[in-house]
Structures are given as C-alpha cells and as structure tokens.
Amino acid sequence: MTNDEFMTMLIRHEGNIPYAYKDSLGYWTIGVGFLIDKEKGGKLEPEEIQFILQNRINKLVKELAIKLPWMTELTPTRQAVLVNMAFNLGVNGLLGFKNTLLFIKTGQYEKAARGMLASKWASQVKGRAVELAKLMKEG
Fold first, then answer.
1. pLDDT band at residue 105 using 50, 70 and 90 as cut-offs
2. Under a CB-based contact definition with an 8 Å cutoff, are residues 34 and 42 in contact?
3. Given this model, what pLDDT does residue 12 score?
4. Cα four-point dihedral sign 73, 96, 91, 29
5. How does residue 120 score in pLDDT terms, banded at 50, 70 and 90?
6. Fewest CB atoms less than 10 Å from the CB: which of 28, 54, 94, 119?
7. Distance between CA atoms of 42 and 48, rounded to whole angstroms?
8. pLDDT-derived band at 9, boundaries 50, 70, 90
9. Residue 67 has what DSSP assignment?
10. What are the chain's domains?
C-alpha cells in the first residue's frame, strides 16, 4: 500500500472535517481524526500550528494583494500591520476601514494610526491596536 493509498483509507475511515467537532466518545477532534481535546491529551504539535499559521498568512497576503494592490508598495512593516488586522478581522472587516485605508494608500500614516485607534476594533483588542497603530505611524 502506498502512502497516498493509506492516507485515502484513513480519510475514508476517520472523515475529513474542517472544523472542530466531538467524536463518537465526545472528545474534541478536527480534520482527519486529529484529537485536540486537552482533557484526553490531544493537541496540535508546534510544527502543525506553524504550518497552519503560515498557510493562513499566505492566503491573506494573496487576497489582500488583489483587494489592495497598492499594499505591495508599502514598507514590509506596514504590510504586516494590514495582514495582522486582516488575520484578526477577516479581509472584509479590514476593508471596512475605508478612511484609514485611504490614509494609508496616500501616505498619511499618522492619520491612519489615529483612525485605527479611534475604531471599535481598537476598544476590543486594546494593546494590539496600540502596537499596530505605532507600527503604521513609524513604518
């Protein structure tokens, strides 16, 4: 049996569910039977978390490059601020910051930082918003 055949068999037996669910014994599981229930000793390994995180970042960068093509002209730090916000808010949530994004696009970074801090989002994420606004302002 090849590795691909074995993986296909495991998927057939375990399922392939892209969200957390309780297995037949009531333990939290995800994907192809990956036990993540702390009570039962389940968890994701650090390299799995790193892989998922990098995959999500790559996806956001690609989506933002389409929605905000001017973003690639920003410093890497300012790009990271926008990706960080999209990671937290979703791309559509970030796109809701219309005035702030206009300020960023036109190089008015201090105004953009003030807009970030004046938002409902900032009151929800507190220190994160302060750090990201500082990075946006300073570049």
1. very high
2. yes
3. 96
4. positive
5. very high
6. 54
7. 13
8. very high
9. H
10. 3-40 (no CATH), 46-138 (1.10.530.40)
Q: Give φ, ψ of 30 to 5 degrees.
A: -150, 155
Q: Strand pairing partners for 34?
A: 30
CB atoms within 10 A of CB 125: 16
Amino acid identity of residue 8, one-letter, is T
For position 72, what pLDDT does the model report? 95
Q: Residues 85-101, buried b or exposed e (16+ Cβ, 10 A)?
A: bbeebebeebeebeebb
Quick check: 135 and 80 in contact, CB under 8 A?
A: yes
Amino acid at 91: V
Average pLDDT of the residues in 52-64: 97
CB 101 within 8 A of CB 115: no
Q: Are 78 and 139 a contacting pair, CB within 8 Å?
A: yes
Q: How far apart are CA 109 and CA 54, in angstroms?
A: 27
The residue type at 32: V
